[in-house]
Amino acid sequence: MIYLSISAAALAAVLCGYFFLRRRPHALFVLAYQKVGCAPKHSRLTREWISPKAFEKTLLRLHKYGFTTVSLQKLSEGKLPQKPVLLAFIGGYQSFVTDIFPLLEKHQMQAAVFISPDLAGTYNAWQDPHEEPWQNLLTEKELKTLHKSGLVSVGALALGGQDVTLLPAEDAAVSVQESLFRLKTQLGIKPEGFAFWPAEQFDSKQAAALLPDGFTAPLLTPRRGLNKRTGKRRLLKVLFPAMQPLAVRYTLWKHR
To answer: What are phi and psi of 193, to 5 degrees?
Structure first.
């Protein structure tokens, strides 16, 4: 009996080690970020922040493991490398141009910014200032400069950064379509994606009912998880390095 117990324990240990260490099939990763830098004192939203140093470590890790960053356009076309990753920055905060873009240039990697075009050059008015002071957003000029660099794709959020699941269906459709229209006509940037944020429970049918006809670009929600197969995708699942750094590091390592 003792030998049987030892054998069972050894087998369990081997199986656990196998599942822990084995590589997983390639996936389309979406790493979602919000604010960059140090969270203000007494902030209740510290999990939304990541330091430039931590972000650069992620870039180095992606390079080490053979991942390739992709643009929203390439994702929409389905022309993806073997190990693609989309770096998505939700909100369009000013810190992107000061802290993130220099790192993208340094390592020649791509990222996508999602912003409410009506708030460009203002602040994140959707946020309760009692939770954290408002943060400045990218200006129209900065967005155009970033887009022209070839390293930054630009996607839209609903007008005012609204959660469209809280709006009547007609108002939600207006918010989504007007946002896409303003990004193209007011800012002169063709929207290459849309982020339903923080509409975590959205599905493809609900999204299609709000989007303009013919809009087939990638869509994001805060739904957590992996996109297990590469190729063209509609509603993408995401990972949050700022909120779960160790879990994301392990997941990247598993898919190296």
So the answer is: -175, 170
The 10s digit of each residue's pLDDT in 105-123 is 999 999 999 999 999 999 9
Residue range 63-71: mean pLDDT, rounded: 96
Question: 67, 81, 75, 69: which is closest to 232 by C-alpha?
Answer: 75
Predicted TM-score (pTM) of the model is: 0.90
* DSSP for the chain, written as a single string: -HHHHHHHHHHHHHHHHHHHHSPPPP-BEEEEE-EES-PPTT-S-GGGEE-HHHHHHHHHHHHHTT-EE--HHHHHHT---SSEEEEEEES-BTHIIIIIHHHHHHHT--EEEEE-GGGTTSB-TTS-TTTS---BB--HHHHHHHHHTTSEEEEE--GGG--GGGS-HHHHHHHHHHHHHHHHHTS------EE--S-TT--HHHHHHHSPTT--S-EEEEEES-B-S-S--SEEEEB-TTT-HHHHHHHHHHT-
What pLDDT digit, counting tens, does each position of 198-231 carry? 888 888 889 999 999 999 999 999 999 999 865 5
Residue 107: partners with Cβ closer than 8 Å, 6 or more residues away:
56, 59, 60, 63
